[in-house]
Design goal:
The chain starts with 12 loop residues before the first helix and ends in a 9-residue tail after the last strand. By secondary structure, it is an alpha/beta fold. The chain is 32% helix and 22% strand. About 11% of the residues have low confidence.
Amino acid sequence: MRSTPILIGAATLALALTACGAPSEQSSGSAEAGESGKGPLRVGVSPVPHGDILAFIDENLAEEAGLELEIEEIADYNTPNAGLVEGDLDANYFQHRAFLNEWVENGPDAELTYVTDVHIERLGLYSEAVEDAADLADGAEIAVPNDPANLYRALTILEAEGLITVDPDAGETATEKDVTDNPGNLRITPIEAAQIPRAVGDVDAAVINGNYAIEAEVAETANVLAWEPEGDDYVEKYANGLVALAENADDERVQLLAELLHDERVLEYIQETWRGVVLPVDADGAIAE
């Protein structure tokens, strides 16, 4: 069954990691998780595309496989992990490893395990003003996500297009302040990721997370100037996946859902529904062709 969405707010990673406090401060850990292997599997997801993917499984594969799902759509980025710690959820599906690692570093009360990769939401450089990145005017304003993991990814797009150079010593914590060469005098403006689709018409170009681009139908009104570069560790870094408490990772229901997430019908559904924006990852951890 697909539950009514829990729209707690369009908080970004930065908000989740700072404004809400450390995970250990958010949960008492007093709630006990459901008995392993018993009852429906309670999964917290972002609405798009995660919720749609689980709904497809629920409607087309779960009953035959003997899996009962309770899908809880959650609009913010912090609640799904806190839900695991508190025992309100058995698993969640909304984050990549970089986000999980940052969340864990804030001191949760339990160990979380990344069970399997499912898909990648590509960051893209979109514009309503130009059709090619080379056509961006001197002094053009570029909106980028303000959360640490995705700000770095945004800068890699601009660097790959030859628009800027980023100090390599800054690593994955690089911000707009680490730009060492900016021949086009680009104005790089960090904005809350969820708000960028609304701002794309007010700037010269914008780097937008795949899920937000889908929700706002950005591709219908804007040109895709570039996709983020895909390095050898692209899947390992940025695939969104299924996560559970370490003690529940081997739960037969969690493992069954992991198997269904890599079913050929699910891979085809992702490819056909979000052509190019969402990339399915197969059971071997490779982007499905």
